[in-house]
Amino acid sequence: MNSRLIKICNRVILRGLIVLVFFLPLVINFRLADTFDLTKVTFFRIVVIALGLFWLVKILKSSEMRLTHSPLNLPAVCFVLVGLLATIFSINPRLSFWGLYKYYSWGFSSLIGYVLIYFVIANNFPKEGVKKLFFFAVLAGGIIAFYGICQYEGVEIFSRMPKDPGGRIWSTLGNPNYLGAFLIMVFPLGLGRLLLTKSRLSRLVLIGGLGSFFICLLLTLSRAAWLGFAGSLVLFVAMLRKSLSKRLLRLSGLLLIFLLLIVSLLFSYMEKGKSLDDLKVFVRISSIVNLADPGILARVSSWESSLQMVQKHPLLGTGLDTYYLVFPSYRKLSYLYSSGKDITAGYAHNEFFQAVTTAGLLGLVAYLWFWFAFFYVGWKKCRSFTQWEEKIIIASILASGLALLIQNQFSFSVLTTSTYFWLFAGILVGGTGEPKVKTFKINPSSWLRSVLLMVGVAGSLFLMIKAIVPYRADVIYEDGLCYLKARNQEMAIKRIEKAVSLNPYVERYNIELGGIYREIALRGKSKEERSYWLERAEESFQRNRKIYPQQPYSYLNLGTCYMWQAQILGWETVDKAIESFQKALLIDPYFIDAWHNLGRVYGWQGKFNSAIICYKRALMITPGDPALHYGLGFVYADSGNVKEAVAEWEETLKLNPEHEEAKRKLKLAKEILSEEKNRSSK
Question: Could you give the angle at the alpha carbon of 91 between the alpha carbons of 89 and 96, nearest 5°?
Fold first, then answer.
């Protein structure tokens, strides 16, 4: 009975990993506000918990624990331990545990999932399963690439998917850079399958699939992915150069010619009538060495800010996945100019900087240690093995890893690519060669074994339910947004309030709810009704501030709520608004919206000099902002300086000729000046 159950556990683990590899990059749900990432991370968590449970059952039933010896084991364990410490001592432990909304990949819950996948594969994965895993990864990549090309042509499968025909594509990954990273990881697996395949028909299918990968990769316009792709090909060839036969070299040459032919035909069709200089791909390629490119400038600026973060929090960093919270305090003007005043960095766009800022120097050491061990083990195995099949598998895995490593020096891992990397690391240890296995005997009594099984099952079910709660909250929140679009505010409020009660830690939920309360207050028929809804709005923004006290937008939104209360109800909340905006500016001195609102509030109070200082301070940061010139014109007009108001509104119209309010105010101001001139001449 036990042996049969152990076999069932082995089959379930293998099939569970195949399901994870195939479906993780594909799953999306348009019933969620976070269509792409939350769907994937919920699926990931449930599958990983199930895999861990079946591994536990296998250990208990076999009365032994098999542990594959590898230089990768210790750095993996150290990385988890450092991540745990960084989470415990984080500036926001809950965020560090669950991960940032719409990203999740650097949260502790994801990190422990990656390492669990690594150990499950390293200790339970049969060699014969490697080809299957590669096949399903390549199959998923083929579906994703085909869908991406359809998106480029404007052929959309899902009605609710955002459309941008002829623009950058994202397929089911939600972002062009994420798609590019996924494709460059899967491409070496496809090459490996091609070299191992003997059937001509299968080779033609694989060549066609690789061609679609390459085309889709180009259409992402992801420069980091292109660099990773080039590096992975160089490593793949370098590792197999002594083993490649003339026949396989010819096959590789034919593949290259085929890819170039397909790409040439495709671009001649899609970009018909355009010169070489106008083709987006070639423009993007040329920008790689353009140091004045805004994307490159933004990355360099964020790296400079990251170095300052490390100096402040050297040992354990600020906590896993807290870069988004900390970055505004260190943001530089160069970042604002290259990215825009409303953009803040959620990630460092460099995996090493990401590790050191959020997990400290200890995290960076553990991270680098694991990468070094990954390539060391792979290279050593490839040199020692004589079997052609083993060499190709290892070369494919290492090329895939290098592609991600290069890409991550200019971008960052997401859940799908991170999962693939740790999964491949597990295959490298347990799915190639003859791994060294240590067996630890475990002989609990039947009573204790039953208790442990019950605890394992109950704990797994509890964790799965906890993993589903954020998913359910987002479904309910999206329902609320749909009711809001249908102008059914009553149902919208009920649904969004329900989402907040389930998961109050999502900034977007609280802000949306506060905005709805304000809209209802504006239409309120009595002062009591307006007071009630604006108090509710304040509660929503206060809740968000308590959850994210490090985030300047929390104080901006709260201060704006106090402005509403002063405007709509006449409450004496102006000083509270000023205090909130000043706190936002203490965190981020280049926060334009905070300077703008602070100037407006000072203007209401009649503190015109203070208001003018705020607007001029903001204009020193972004001199070409029409909204700031328009607001400053208001302050000058209220202070009686109509000439200066005219100058500011004229500047507003230079920057934005369609600004109707500025046109109206300018006309009135000029009439006033004309009347004053006529009176003085008389």
Answer: 75
Task: Please state the rounded mean pLDDT for residues 380-384.
Answer: 83
Radius of gyration, alpha carbons of the chain = 29
Question: Quick one: what percent of the chain has pLDDT higher than 90?
Answer: 54
Q: How would you class 248 by CB atoms within 10 Å of its CB: exposed for 0-12, middle for 13-18, buried for 19 or more? A: middle
pLDDT at 201: 82
Helix crossing, 351-384 with 323-330: angle to 10°?
Answer: 130
Question: Nearest-5° angle of CA 204, CA 385, CA 120?
Answer: 80
List the one residue out of 152, 221, 150, 153 whose CA is nearest residue 183: 221
DSSP assignment of 586-655:
HH-TT-HHHHHHHHHHHHHHT-HHHHHHHHHHHHHH-TT-HHHHHHHHHHHHHTT-HHHHHHHHHHHHHH
Plot region of 10 (φ>0 → left; ψ -120 to 50 → alpha; else → beta):
alpha
Question: Cα(442)–Cα(645) distance, rounded to whole angstroms?
Answer: 82
Is the pLDDT at 245 greater than 60? The verdict is no
Alpha carbons 104 and 467: distance in angstroms, whole number: 12
**Alpha helices for 293-341 (secondary structure H):** 294-312, 323-330, 333-339
The pLDDT tens digits for 6-59 are 888 888 898 999 999 999 999 999 999 999 999 999 999 999 999 999 999 888
Smallest CA-to-CA distance from 669 within 643, 651, 648 is with 643
The residue assigned the tokens 């989470």 is 87
Structure tokens at 437: 């296995």
Are the C-beta atoms of residues 530 and 524 closer than 8 Å to each other?
Answer: yes
Residue whose tokens read 């109950």: 458
Q: Which residues pair with 69 in a beta bridge?
A: 436
pLDDT digits (tens, 9 = 90+) for 55-99: 998 888 888 888 888 899 999 999 999 999 999 999 999 999 999
Q: Which two tokens stand for residue 599?
A: 């100037």
* Residue 429, CB-side half-sphere exposure with 13 Å CA sphere: 27
Q: Mind listing the domains of the chain with CATH numbers?
A: 69-441 (no CATH), 589-682 (1.25.40.10)
Cβ 319 vs Cβ 92: under 8 Å: yes
For strand 436-441 and strand 64-69, is the pairing parallel, antiparallel, or unpaired?
antiparallel
Report the distance separating Cα 180 and Cα 182, nearest Å.
5
Inter-residue contact 626 to 659 (CB < 8 Å): yes
Q: Which residues contact 183 (CB under 8 A, 6 or more apart)?
A: 141, 144, 145, 213, 216, 217, 220, 225, 229
Rounded mean pLDDT of 581-593?
94
Q: How far apart are CA 484 and CA 471, in angstroms?
A: 20
Measured between alpha carbons, how far is 413 from 419 in angstroms, rounded to an integer?
9
